[in-house]
Amino acid sequence: MQKRSIVPIVYILFLMLPIYWLVAMSFKTTNEILSGFSLFPQTFTLENYKVIFTDPTWYWGYINSILYVSINTVISVCVALPAAYAFSRYRFLGDKQLFFWLLTNRMAPAAVFALPFFQLYSAVGLFDTHLAVALAHCLFNIPLAVWILEGFMGGVPKELDETAYVDGYSFPRFFVSIFLPAIKAGVGVAAFFCFMFSWVELLLAKTLTAVAAKPIAATMTKTASSAGYELGLLAAAGTLTIIPGAIVIYFVRNYIAKGFAMGRV
Amino acid sequence: MKTENQKAWFFVLPVLLLVAFNALIPMMTVVNYSVQETFGDNVFFWQGLDWFEQILRSDRFHAALGRQFLFTFLILIIEVPLGIAIALSMPRQGFWVPVCLVLMALPMLIPWNVVGAMWNIFTLPDIGLLGYFLNHTLGINYDMTQDPIAAWVTIVTMDVWHWTSLVVLLSYAGLVSIPDAYYQAAKIDGASNWSVFRYIQLPKMKTVLTIAILLRFMDSFNIYTEPFVLTGGGPGNSTTLLSIDLVKIALGQFDLGPAAAMSLIYFAITLLVSWLFYTLMTKDDQN
To answer: Which residue numbers delimit the ABC transmembrane type-1 domain (chain A) (predicted)?
Structure first.
């Protein structure tokens, strides 16, 4: 162990402390939490988790969240692929302006759009569906996916395309069987980022849903206010929202540093 | 070299339609509201630019904007140097690299309101880990629901906890792309640690740092959920950032006109500052 590894260790400890506290709380009874401070759960209980897994309003929250996040990830990556290819391979009228305009959509505060989004999706009859949230999250996920994929595609030499045409490949066949495998790391990273930003966003998801597609994070806020202050239950629900992210991040661990650099280092 | 091909528009079309549907229609709704007055029942009156004038002159807007700039300034001044320092001290290869990266990325994957709730539980004066430690072990009187300074320290610490890893991961990606030969050359020349950083590492991190600073600016300037869940804008109005104030006006008081005008001013400021950052940071590339 070198001396300088102290810095990352201290930093990771700092990151883990609030997470530890949330997890520890989730194994405590509400009585224990309110009766005073204890570093470890004294009366270890799984009661909080049992409530979540047996009450449909709780576990449907998770299913809803995972559903719209998955739909959003699939849509974003699928439409971003051809667009990113166009930006990385061709010059066309207004390409730079279009690219910049796409990126500005990441700068719009979601708070600005909450009410108009509600009206728009009510008007087209999609209010309170998974598709509505998935489509709304496209606003900031598609530009990001295009940006990341364009970076990765730029790293693939153009000779690959030309050789394939000379060999008589049609464009769709070339794209699926040669080009996609060449940038599969980029597709993984783009999908990861779409998943991440759709999973953590709540303001739009909450605005666009009422009952049928309500995300887990919204269930948490409503339960917190209606059932008094059930800290243990809240902590258990919070702990469970960390797990999908942790699983996804484990799969892309080797690409993640590269993905954050948008393949543009 | 890219080839000129107008048919490429067909490739971009699906993206264009989906993003335009989500961006242009709501934006037009906002523009509509911003120039009209309504008393409900879908009856609207032309109002011209009055709302804009009213917002730009209101003390409340100036105060929220000031708090917003202070918050973003603190975030950038803390997270960027800290993130670079942590990235520099991370191991370059080996078993611990993926472990570090996964653990560091974890806070970014937690839903934003859970982040707020988590920090709320963490800082409760008598039963939260941090709150208990500060109040009972160190004897500092800490209660962020009463003390504006404590509330500010808490939301800034929470954001540092939440997002410093983004700067770390981006800087780290820039660092690992530097070939070993550069370091060997620096060693032969007898370069100090500082000059290695200044003339080798910093220039190599420039692209990714530009992305990091831009993303951190945009996201901290638009931050809503985490501070709202943690402090609700209080105590008083001390942590009412711009977007919290905006939601209060739009959904709390249902003043659609002023809220829409404020949204547009807000968006314009974000765009302008992002553009300034971008031009300043990429200026050297053109020379």
So the answer is: 62-252
